[in-house]
């Protein structure tokens, strides 16, 4: 069964450094998302992406964050200058689009655990 | 902003016991509802979903959930749990605005521990 994959599984970085989290969505999916979960808190929406542009972003997704689909398979989240409070598990998700009952279902990757020191 | 509440943070059951996990949401319009499960060391997996039609939906591994619109609830049930059901369960809601895209609002999750 196709799955969303994410790399790396763990990332440790120093405050102020840039990090790029990578995701490979399911191949025929058209809609891509990033969520994060700070330890002990809810999974929170960051951004959704379709047709090479951001469709929606949350208040968390400030100028320090950016997303990109650099090629036909990868979807990346960049944090320009990391802060301590960016430490979290970051989940990528994708959904199919189109018609039918499955098109809205978001399929999640295993996550990248980011630790900012 | 929408909110999703899961009132049980940690549920401990013995095998064969019945399970019901509560989920309530705050949006008054049309919603799509989901339960995801995260087994230890694994990623979020879809357990079941409701879009429209029969409010009682059946998912994988014997789970079912009932959408009660008047109560803004989507409770998850299983008549007889197994040790392998030990996992964290997340309720999620998507506001249906007629668009394909839409963020999911998650509850805090309920950790289920099943003793053999």
Question: What does this protein look like?
Answer:
The complex is a heterodimer of chains A (about 120) and B (about 120). By secondary structure, chain A is mainly beta. Chain A has no helices and eleven strands. In chain A, the strands form two sheets. In chain A, strands 2, 4, 5, 6, 9, 10 and 11 form a seven-stranded mixed β-sheet that branches. Chain A has a four-stranded antiparallel β-sheet with strand order 1-3-8-7, with no helix packed on it. In chain A, β5 and β6 form a beta hairpin. The mean pLDDT of chain A is about 90. Chain B has about 120 residues and is an all-beta fold. Helices cover about 0% and strands about 50% of the residues of chain B. Chain B has no helices and twelve strands. In chain B, strands 2, 5, 6, 10, 11 and 12 form a six-stranded mixed β-sheet that branches. Chain B has a four-stranded antiparallel β-sheet with strand order 3-9-8-7, with no helix packed on it. Chain B has a two-stranded antiparallel sheet with strand order 1-4. In chain B, β7 and β8 form a beta hairpin. Chain B is globular, with a radius of gyration of 14 Å. The termini of chain B are far apart. The chains are: A mainly beta (about 120), B mainly beta (about 120). Chains A and B meet through β4, β5 and β10 of A and β5, β6, β10 and β11 of B.
Q: Helical element count of chain A?
A: 0
Shape of chain A: globular
Number of helices of chain B: 0
Q: What is the C-alpha radius of gyration of chain A, as a whole number of Å?
A: 14 Å
Report how far the terminal alpha carbons of chain B are from each other.
41 Å
Shape of chain B: globular
Low-confidence sequence ranges of chain B: none
- String of helices and strands of chain B: EEEEEEEEEEEE
Give the SSE string of chain A: EEEEEEEEEEE
Quote the beta fraction of chain B: over 45%
Fraction of helical residues of chain B: under 10%
User: Of all protein chain pairs, which has the greatest interface, and how many residues does each chain bring to it?
Assistant: A-B, 29 and 24 residues
Radius of gyration of chain B: 14 Å
How many strands, what sense, and barrel or not for the largest sheet of chain B? 6 strands, mixed
Distance between the termini of chain A: 37 Å
Beta-strand percent range of chain A: over 45%
Which parts of chain A are unreliable, with pLDDT below 50 for 5 consecutive residues or more? none
Which structural class do the helices and strands of chain A define?
mainly beta
């Amino acid at each position: 069964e196709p799955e969303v994959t994410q790399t790396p599984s763990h990332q440790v970085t120093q405050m102020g450094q840039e990090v790029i989290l990578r995701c490979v969505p399911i191949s025929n999916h058209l809609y891509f998302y990033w969520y994060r979960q700070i330890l002990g808190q809810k999974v929170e929406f960051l951004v959704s992406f379709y047709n090479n542009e951001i469709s929606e972003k949350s208040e968390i997704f400030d100028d320090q964050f950016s997303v990109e689909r650099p090629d036909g398979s990868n979807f990346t989240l960049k944090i320009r200058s990391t802060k301590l409070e960016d430490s979290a598990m970051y989940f990528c998700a994708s959904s199919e689009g189109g018609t039918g009952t499955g098109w809205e279902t978001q399929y999640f990757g295993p996550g990248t655990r980011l630790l900012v020191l | 902003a929408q909110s999703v509440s899961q009132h049980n943070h940690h549920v401990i059951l013995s095998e064969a016991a019945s399970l019901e996990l509560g989920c309530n949401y705050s949006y008054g319009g049309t919603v799509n509802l989901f339960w995801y499960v995260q087994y230890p060391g694994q990623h979020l997996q879809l357990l079941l979903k409701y879009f429209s039609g029969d409010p009682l939906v059946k998912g994988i591994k014997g789970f079912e959930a009932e959408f009660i619109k008047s109560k803004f609830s989507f409770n998850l049930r299983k008549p007889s749990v197994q040790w392998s059901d030990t996992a964290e369960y997340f309720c999620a809601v998507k506001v249906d605005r007629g668009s394909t895209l839409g963020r999911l609002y998650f509850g805090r999750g309920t950790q289920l521990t099943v003793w053999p």
